[in-house]
Amino acid sequence: MEPYESKLLSLIEKNNKIIILTAENRVSLRNIPEKLNHNFIDVGISEQNLIGIGAGLAKLGFLPIMHGMSAFLTMRAFEFIRTDLGYPSLPSVIVGTFNGLSSTANGTANGPTHQAIEDIALMRLVPNMTVVAPSDILETLEVLDKISKLSGPIYIRDSNSGSINMQREPFTWEKNECIVKGDNVAILAYGTILDICLKVSKKLSEKSFSHSIYNIRFLKPIDKACLHEIFDRHKKIFVIEDHISIGALGSIIKEFAWENNKDNKIIFINLRESFFRPGNFNDALQNTELAPGKIYGKIINS
Length: 302
What we know:
Elements: H1 3-14, E1 18-22, H2 33-36, E2 40-42, H3 47-59, E3 63-69, H4 70-76, H5 78-86, E4 92-97, E5 104-105, E6 108-109, H6 119-124, E7 130-132, H7 137-144, E8 153-157, E9 177-180, E10 184-189, H8 192-206, E11 211-215, E12 218-220, H9 224-233, E13 234-240, H10 249-259, E14 265-269, H11 281-286, H12 292-300
Parallel strand pairs: 1-2, 1-3, 3-4, 4-8, 7-8, 10-11, 10-13, 13-14
Antiparallel strand pairs: 5-6, 7-12, 9-11
Helix pairs in contact: 1-7, 3-5, 8-12
């Protein structure tokens, strides 16, 4: 049994009001439906129904954890998320898989229909919504441990990846973390791209290039204390994400800089306003500006 599945089972043992739902996406749930019994609902390929049923359960005092592919959850069901979960601020969990460059399923390179590259922008639009993008499975489990305290809906941009070998600060709700501490240049990332940036960090360290790496996992609400630290300590800031240039971390940083009269040099590396060439993660990565070598080149020559 996978760690994610074990975590769900342990949560339900403590709180029988937790209901696991899916829109026929059992990638993270293959081994537990029969163990969940009445705490499991598969609505089929019907994301709007998924959110509607989850909202109804939340109104009745249950805590729904709803799973689906990010592209279909955040776009096809956006109105339902906005109105049924956001407007009444219902405690509920939306887990979106296959997001950003991680759009490959069953070894097949899915096309632009499956590319969730606008999901963070959409979820940030919803009042009362928390948006978090864990970098690995360990961070996802930390988020799940805190869902009993929710006062509204949360969107978890599941990274679909195993654990990353790194030194971490203790997990704190709605707080981001500095993983590598240095001066001059700050590198901001989240989700699967954080691991890419850690590979870049290793090469930068070999060149004695002082830098910091920040894991900006909480994208809403904004961890303003962390952003003040970043802008105060670093002259240059690189914002790196597998999302279009509008609405996600890049927009957060621009808004913060404008509102706080910051004049730091900010460089954005993202998917701009384009879809990416389908392929497995590593192949898709190489066809974007997000490949480690390309990121390294931009930073070292900045």
